[in-house]
């Protein structure tokens, strides 16, 4: 039974998958079908609700994550030989619960499942402060209120698990393919008027702002999403004769302290996201962002085309 189909170039879950209920021992359901059913409900229904309402348990207490509240982001990339200094404070990110499950493909023999989601629109509103000179031509200074809108935000990753006593547990996630289709950044001065010049130059930095914002979002949601998914997977029981083909490999790679979503963004310069790590590091070391940025965008687009 197939749980996905192609539509306008995107792989989406079929309507039949939405009507299924978990049935681990069902005669007409394979093991992976049952896993897909359980995780589909856990992600598309229950996770969305908990993001909206928050959660309180013996393990942790989380306020609602939509809107998600962030305190501060500070960037100082170098443009035209001069630092572009911008600080964003009191951020409110809306749209975290609006995601659509694009793909859910388990491969239990390898103790993995692939998942991708699309956020139609993520909007971050904040207070900003800018103190910069661009190409010795534009002096950009001031404070005010700003908004950043990113549309069709795609995130895709593979999640690694281990099996023990008939149950599964998540131990890590691979670095994902992440990008957005369109963006719009609007900055208003303290008088409430839109600053056209400032908004124009800030929009050129929208990819950098996006990835730095995404990094902050991951920090805030890491433990919540990791605990939630592991609680959901505990409900799935493996048959007594289940023997994954890669148990030895997963045990070799497993680290008890390895976080779930931290791995969604690079922690080393290896792999397809090496350029992202170097770019974010470059923000702190005043690298010339336009040069690194072009390489970064090309890298992301090439990786995305492999899977769309």
Automatic annotation (TrEMBL):
InterPro entries: Haemolymph_juvenile_hormone-bd, To_sf. This is Uncharacterized protein. It holds the Pfam family JHBP.
